[in-house]
Design goal:
The complex is a heterodimer of chains A (462) and B (446).
Chain A (H helix, E strand, L loop, with lengths): L1 H17 L26 H6 L17 E5 H15 L4 E4 L14 H5 L4 E3 L4 H13 L4 E4 L10 H7 L3 H4 L9 E7 L14 H5 L5 E3 L4 H13 L4 E6 L2 H4 L1 E5 L11 E4 L4 E5 L3 H16 L3 E5 L2 E3 L3 H11 L2 E4 L8 H10 L1 H6 L10 H4 L2 H12 L4 H8 L3 H14 L16 H13 L5 H11 L7
Parallel strand pairs in A: 2-3, 2-4, 4-5, 5-7, 6-7, 10-11, 10-13
Antiparallel strand pairs in A: 1-8, 6-12, 9-11
Chain B lengths: L1 H13 L7 H16 L41 E2 L19 H26 L13 H10 L5 E3 L5 H7 L3 H9 L32 H15 L5 E6 L6 H12 L4 E7 L2 E2 L2 E2 H4 L15 E6 L3 H18 L3 E6 L18 H10 L2 H11 L5 H24 L18 H16 L12
Parallel strand pairs in B: 1-7, 2-3, 3-4, 4-8, 7-8
Antiparallel strand pairs in B: 5-6
Helix pairs in contact in B: 3-4, 3-5, 3-12, 3-13, 4-5, 4-10, 6-13, 7-8
Catalytic activity (chain A): N(6)-[(R)-lipoyl]-L-lysyl-[protein] + 3-methyl-2-oxobutanoate + H(+) = N(6)-[(R)-S(8)-2-methylpropanoyldihydrolipoyl]-L-lysyl-[protein] + CO2
GO molecular function, one term (chain A): branched-chain 2-oxo acid dehydrogenase activity
Enzyme class (chain A): oxidoreductase
């Protein structure tokens, strides 16, 4: 199972170790660049298959965190861990193969710099790694556990869900393992197949008590990882492995944090909201420019960053503005995290909480209770003027006038359609409307009225 | 001492096929110690001029005939004891010679636990609490081991270690509060009964999943080692939980990472209804220790002094030498697994009676005390009356207390409440307000 697949990678690592350390132990990972032999000058079909499926879009150089240096994603992880080990004497890093630098080189140099009691290998046992981390965290140490691939995190599922997530709650806050951070390489890499490509965030999103964070690039990675380490809750930090080498940015050398549970609007737009995290952000960046160019569609791009607890406010506010939502993630669609986002966005509760809800434009005539409206009509019938009636009942003359006008026209004091009132559309009329609206979501009321007239039905704009 | 003797016998059993001179054996032990102490050092340089195996995975001699090593379950690891079943000291040099005060305290704690168990078991039967687990027959393992530790040593338990907490001074009120899930519960009424925890007494809150505490104890011990404050960690579990993968993980991690940790296995014969011959085929849990490179011992769990001596020595060496110890305390679960269990379905009443009458930790200690005139019939009678009275008082008080405030359903999920938890809490209050006839709030703290 896990052991046989990993033989591949242990082999790769070992090869690099005995050969030339600088040549990069991860030649088989990350964006495998086109390997053109000197004789071959054009891209053959097989070579195209190895090219990565997206272009990495680096973040602009951050200016508020001090001096920066060029780093790729795994180097930004090393930098964050370096800052942590330097400032926190209780911090320890452990997992399989972290001592020599890790299969993705995230911990290179740390053991030599900080000592073998702080950066050490554990036996090959994920449930042990996380269990050990929980205990160390509960005893007061800052525990940073590495799971070699997110695909192998499942043996630790019990420890994460039943123990880490519930430690504080079940003990009445006597104990907690907030000092625990679990890191794991995550997501598609092209050739990873079933067991080196998984995105398991949805399994853990169902578990209150932990936090799940996924960065899109080195600057975000270091800041978010440092936030996770600082955070007083157990955190799982998934690192998109395809970006380990492909993503290069100017990253601050000092420690800095990027807040958790805050989604980032990367690009503003008006027609549709796009939500993603990790690698798919870069795919969607391309989608944004393609949509603008080819369809004239303006997209708003949001990087969710924290999957749990996620920033519902930013996403819902954006969807309220654009009216449309598209979510892109790498995991299976059934029960994937997109399902959670779309279900929350469509829940009426949210629209009620927002002050710019469309439901707030109800006519004032509806707000007066039926008794008062009937009284207005009676008094009018008795010959009283609008102003007099208004003064008597404490309402504006214009309101009184509106009610009386409506009564005159419709012979009713309540004329707005109520839910459950019989629908006056014929089935044909209704299907015309639905067809039109489905095809063109931007149909206006006037369009519909005109269409229906052509179809032979007269409707009022109300 | 007993530990060394046990180790040597074990050694003889496992490698009886390999001819060893005592000199070579001693050198072997030294070599292994060297490997452990200098964990980071690589093996000695490969040298094929010698006819010795050069494998990095194991250092052993070659053998030229085929022979499988016997697991040897018939005469396995011997059981260390200090008192016989009648409470008489067998080997006077093993008597820890504790003061009268200490021993009487042992006895009182064991009997107080027993009394509390009886009353709370009954209260579950009467519908006052939802669930309970008794400790009948295992009081010796709790008190003996707890007494051998420092008060600052961290305890990771499974669920049948209430005596450890009692020995450390956890008040009856708080035991009751947790079982009743009332407003005084340190755990804020969130868990089933017997899931105790105390930060002041260094007792990690119990959780229901079995054996999850074992690798956690290894991590805590590692952190304690780095703190360098002479602090040990003890981890309790039953022989059933020792079958879990987490147990294997914990043993292996603690040995490879050199943690000052005592693994205390209460082998009480049953995991709910599963007897030990369906739980394992090897020689119990103690025999697994050497497989991990761990010093191990098997003790008579119903002999408080044997448990005390083994735990004390293990603790001393664990901290001094930064290595884990495995103690398998053999005992018998006299009570049912829990209030949801009726053990007559899978074992005979005669079997239970034997242990209750002939080999009980409380009676053995009483014989020891009466032999020294430290405890009389009068003491017994008045202590029974007094302990029952204090338990009943705590019990009645706990019954009357309010349940915890409803807001506590939503706090401590994270260190700070998240927006959706705040929303959900408000939604709950609105719901309760609207349907207040269906939600009597009088029982809850305001």
């Amino acid at each position: 199972m896990a052991a046989s697949a990993r033989l591949l990678f242990r082999g790769a690592g070992l090869k690099a170790y005995t050969a030339n350390v600088n040549s990069g132990a991860q030649s088989s990972f990350g964006t495998t660049l086109l390997r053109l032999s000197p004789n071959c000058s054009s891209q053959t079909k097989t070579q195209i298959k190895h090219a990565s499926h997206f272009t990495y879009h680096p973040d602009p150089v951050p200016t508020m965190y001090g001096p920066t240096t060029k780093m790729n994603l795994f180097q930004s992880v090393t930098s964050a861990l370096d800052n942590t080990l330097a400032s926190d004497p209780t911090a320890v890093i452990f997992g399989e193969d972290v001592a020599f630098g890790g299969v993705f080189r995230c911990t290179v140099g740390l053991r030599d710099k900080y000592g073998k009691d702080r950066v050490f290998n554990t036996p090959l046992c994920e449930q042990g790694i996380v269990g050990f981390g929980i205990g160390a965290a509960a005893a007061g140490a800052t525990a940073i556990a590495e799971i070699q691939f997110a695909d192998y995190i499942y043996p630790a599922f019990d420890q994460i869900v039943n123990e880490a997530a519930k430690y504080r709650y079940r003990s009445g806050n006597l104990f907690d393992c907030g000092n625990l951070t679990i890191r794991a390489p995550w997501g598609c890499v092209g050739h990873g197949s079933l067991y080196h490509s998984q995105s398991p965030e949805a399994f853990f999103a169902h578990c209150p008590g932990i936090k799940i964070v996924i960065p899109r690039g080195p600057v975000q990675c270091k800041g978010l990882l440092l936030s996770c380490i600082e955070d007083h809750n157990p955190c799982i930090f998934f690192e998109p492995k395809i970006l380990y080498r492909a993503a290069v940015e100017q990253v601050p050398t000092e420690a800095y944090t990027i807040p958790l549970s805050q989604a980032e609007v990367l690009q503003e737009g008006s027609d549709v909201t796009l939500v993603a995290w990790g690698t798919q952000i870069h795919v969607l960046r391309e989608v944004v420019s393609m949509a603008q160019e080819k369809l004239g569609v303006s997209c708003e791009l949001i990087d969710l960053q924290t999957i749990l607890p996620w920033d519902t406010e930013t996403v819902c506010k954006s969807v309220a503005k654009t009216g449309r939502l598209l979510i892109s993630h790498e995991a299976p669609v059934t029960g994937g995290f997109a399902a959670e986002i779309s279900s929350t966005v469509q829940t009426p509760v949210h629209t009620l909480n927002q002050t710019d809800s469309n439901l707030s434009t109800m006519a004032k005539t509806r707000e007066l209770c039926k008794d008062i409206r009937d009284k207005i009509v009676d008094q009018h019938k008795a010959g009283m003027g609008y102003r007099t009636i208004g003064q008597q009942l404490g309402e504006k003359a214009t309101t009184v006038g509106a009610i009386i006008r409506k009564w005159k026209k419709f012979k009713k004091t309540v004329n707005l359609p109520q839910s459950g009132a019989p629908c006056k559309f014929s089935p044909r009329g209704a299907s015309v409307i639905m067809r039109k609206v489905r095809g063109q979501p931007r149909t206006t009321r006037l369009d519909l009225v005109n269409d229906l007239k052509r179809a032979g039905t007269t409707v009022s704009k109300n | 001492m007993a530990t060394a003797r046990g180790m040597k016998t074990m050694y003889g059993v496992c490698s009886h096929a390999v001819r060893q001179t005592t000199g070579l054996k001693a050198a072997r032990i030294l070599q292994q110690r060297a490997f452990r102490v200098n964990g980071a050092l690589r093996q000695q340089p490969f040298d094929s001029s010698e006819e010795k195996p050069q494998f990095p995975g194991a250092s052993a001699e070659f053998i030229d005939h085929l022979e499988f090593i016997q697991p040897n379950v018939i005469s396995g690891i011997p059981v260390y004891r200090v008192m016989d079943r009648a409470g008489q000291i067998i080997n006077p040099s093993e008597d820890p010679q504790l003061s009268k005060e200490t021993v009487v305290n042992f006895y009182q704690k064991m009997t107080l636990l027993n009394t509390m168990d009886r009353i709370l078991y009954e209260s579950q039967r009467q519908g006052r609490i939802s669930f309970y687990m008794t400790n009948y027959g295992e009081e010796g393992t709790h008190i003996g081991s707890a007494a051998a530790l420092d008060s600052k040593d961290l305890v990771f338990g499974q669920y049948r270690e209430a005596g450890v907490l009692m020995y450390r001074g956890f008040p009856l009120d708080l035991f009751m509060a947790q079982c009743y899930a009332n407003a005084d519960d340190l755990g804020k009424g969130r868990q089933m009964p017997v899931h105790y925890g105390s930060k002041d007494l260094n007792f990690i809150t119990i959780s229901s999943p079995l054996a999850t505490q074992i690798p956690q104890a290894a991590g805590a011990a590692y952190a304690a080692k780095r703190e360098n404050t002479n602090r040990a960690v003890i981890c309790y579990f039953g022989e059933g939980a020792a079958s879990e993968g987490d147990a294997h993980a914990g043993f292996n991690f603690s040995a490879t990472l050199e943690c000052p940790l005592i693994f205390f296995c209460r082998n009480n014969g049953y995991a709910i209804s599963t007897p030990t011959n369906e739980q394992y085929r090897g020689d119990g849990i103690a025999a697994r220790g050497p497989g991990y490179g761990m010093l191990s011992i098997r003790v008579d769990g119903n002999d408080v002094f044997a448990v005390y001596n083994a735990t004390k020595e293990a603790r001393r060496r664990a901290v001094a030498e930064n290595q884990p110890f495995l103690i398998e305390a053999m005992t018998y679960r006299i009570g049912h697994h829990s209030t949801s269990d009726d053990s007559s379905a899978y074992r005979s009443v005669d079997e239970v009676n034997y242990w209750d009458k002939q080999d009980h930790p409380i009676s053995r200690l009483r014989h020891y005390m009466t032999a020294r005139s430290w405890w009389s019939e009068d003491n017994e009678r008045s202590w029974r009356k007094q302990s029952r009275k204090t338990v009943m008082e705590a019990f009645e008080k706990a019954e009357k207390r309010h349940k915890p405030h409803l807001d506590l359903m939503f706090t401590d999920v994270y260190d700070e409440m998240t927006p959706n938890l705040i929303r959900q809490r408000e939604s709950m209050w609105r719901h309760i307000q609207q349907y207040k006839d269906h939600y009597p709030l009088d029982a809850y703290a305001k």
